[in-house]
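Newbie here. two chains, one complex. Structure please?
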Amino acid sequence: MPRRERRSVVAVEAVGPYVLVRLERGGLDPGTPGQFFMLEAPGRLLPRALSLCLAPPGELAFLLDVVGPGTAALAALEPGDAIHVFGPLGNGFQLAVERPLLVGGGIGMAPLPYLAEALPGAPVVLGFRSERHAEAAALLPGAEVVVEPTFVTEVIDTARDVLACGPEPMLHAVAELCPDAQLAWEAPMACGYGACYGCAVEIDGELKRLCVEGPVLAA
Amino acid sequence: MRLLNASGCLDALVAPDVARQLDGFVTKTITPLPREGNAPPRIAETAHGMLNAIGLANPGRERFLDDTLPRLRELALPLWISVGGFCAADYAETCAALDDVAAIELNLSCPNVDEAADGAAEIVAACRAMTAIPLYAKLSAAHPDVAAVATAVADAGADGLSLVNTLRGCALDPRTLQPLLARTTGGLSGPSLKPIALATVHACYAATQLPVVGMGGVTTGQDVLELVACGARDVALGTILFSDPDAPSRVRAELAEAAARVGVAGPDDVHAVAHDPDRTPPRERSVTA
């Protein structure tokens, strides 16, 4: 069940160009890989939706890319600061798959470390736009890493059960190759729990709320 | 004083625990035909508020009555049905199809769809002819003389007013200098709306003395107290529900403290005091004396 709690920051660490925000877990349930949490961004009106990256004992960790004032506020947190955290929310990945292959693109790799823990031994393919961004692959030892101009779609085994998260063009390309893939999408969200209707995306030919129907959807 | 949600700011079927913290649930606006709503992106954060351009996404009257409404009734909460349309007959037909609900809120002021061709008073009169259910007219502060509109809808048979809807605004991507919303503009809500809500409630209450549901930028119990002081009988929470699903309970607790601070038992004791300097609450009066 989702809960909203005020949690303390344990650490904020650079991972290549990205930032890993580690919070005390408190009474929050880490949920299923692919689910997300709404994190209060200090000084901003709206919280930010982030999928859980890692769930070490007593902690919840979120990987983010600083793209605007909200993520900048989260990246500027310091140990001991406290923020409201609400989750887990949405629908995560279905884990009952026979031959999983985890595919991540850029900051879309965020949910994969936690997903990899739930699917031990599953191969991982990560794609990044630069060598600097590819430093984040350190969170997934053993992953096959490609850097542009090579794309993940050039190296994935399409016979596998693909679980993917990444930028929209990547997800569309993966869906073309693997019609049974599970894809984790992103959309601007004000609330994360179905209240604002802001995160509408086209699902089955209709605009639906990603936070309610997803963020993980069948291809 | 009842604490409600602002229309379009909560889905009671998805979040019943949030709805149950309220004294009534206001639905998203229902139109005669289903509406998908506007293309994404539909929301953007601004410095002290947010913009939305949802565009009245709703299942349409028929599916609402057959499917949504029966499920909402199971929550056993007073239901306020927000009704929208594109001409007076649209509104009136939906009103005629409703019974056994606490109130109907006529959305006469959505900034994200083309406006109804008919005037607010005409729509209210058409609805009044079709239903005895309490009718609240939701108006926009963008009208140059909203108190005159309030008076007109009161004369047309409105039982109350919902004040205020969002105001049209725009936000640009700082890098591309293009609008962040697909529709270019959206309705501004959040804390930046509060002074406008206070002014509008004050003016419309003074003009009509009708019961008012006050809303616009309510974040704390103090905000509720101030809207009531301007003339609101009830208060609705909007954007704050997005960032804080526990807001109804928190705001209620803060409201009790805010009332105690000014020396009254509850918000009803300060209803419309902002219209009369002689009614300054007891705590402040004794300090001044």
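Moderator note: Chain B has a mean pLDDT of 94. The radius of gyration of chain B is 19 Å. Thread marked as resolved.
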